């Protein structure tokens, strides 16, 4: 049954409850019964309308009654039955007019006035006239009407539809309180909407907690929680919600999954960002294109997971990354001190083109050769670099070689000087006589000549002052 049919039924029940009030008629009317002739005609009209649903006959008989002189009791009954017939026939405006006439003339007892106001409110609600429906709901309460749970819910919905959010919140909260532990999804959904509209964030958060607990797989509630955190610039909390949604399998689209990747990266968790990105690319939920491969390589490199970055960079190079990706591959190999692979990757990068700084690439090739002991090859690469870094490497190698030569010469020269000092001591001891000098002094001349000859024959000592 539709809402209009339900409302119509409620109005008809209400009308029937107020018809035939008899002795309880308002003080303005002192009559309490029909005359015999009038009563018979009214009874026939009532039977035709309520039992047989023969409204044409009922209307004809009511018209015949109106053409006669009626007392106040009879006129009130005719007006109320007319309202009933008009509701059944869809003439809601006419029904309202009849009911208001009955109220204004005192034909409806004070005890039934509240129910009549409620009936009028329901008629206006059928007409989608929310303003008047709410007006008469207010009059109903002012006349003593006490909303039950159903009517409180209706007031909450009506006020929400009329954008009276503050009133809607009041009634919805009363409904929730009345429900107690009896959870009603529609009540919480309405409160969710109303708290959001009125900016009551603390209450909104509390309702969302209940909704998520009750409906852990309902995406819209998680989105609402994250949205609130975003609105308050609490991105860390928003990230935690997004992470929970991801772990719960609620995020499906590439944009949603990439948001999680970017959140991990933003909050200094590049390794976790890389793991999510790689997992989702392998599963086909994130496209394995050059941009995403490059991002994955970046994440692994920032996380210093160079072993994991290398196969990704290779894929990116094969996906059209060109020389730039091979340059990155070479740098990754260098970080792992895989020098042969470093040189191979960088040579390929230079041959393919597209790298930003060829000079730095040659420097890294030079370093890879240096580390493998190819000093001549290293010098050649540093010269090809033609930049400060290359020149610094050459200066370093020159200094290194000069130092090495100086050390070789120093060792030979020190040995010669030691023998010379020994010869001076032996010369002083010569006064003791041949038979009394130490054994080492007997060979001093030969050893001194050998030391001098070795110094003069050492290439590293050429040009050195003695």
TrEMBL record:
InterPro entries: TPR-like_helical_dom_sf. Residues 1-26 form the signal peptide. Keywords: Signal. Gene3D superfamilies: Tetratricopeptide repeat domain (1.25.40.10). It comes from the Bacteria. This is Tetratrico peptide repeat group 5 domain-containing protein. It comes from Hyphomonas chukchiensis.
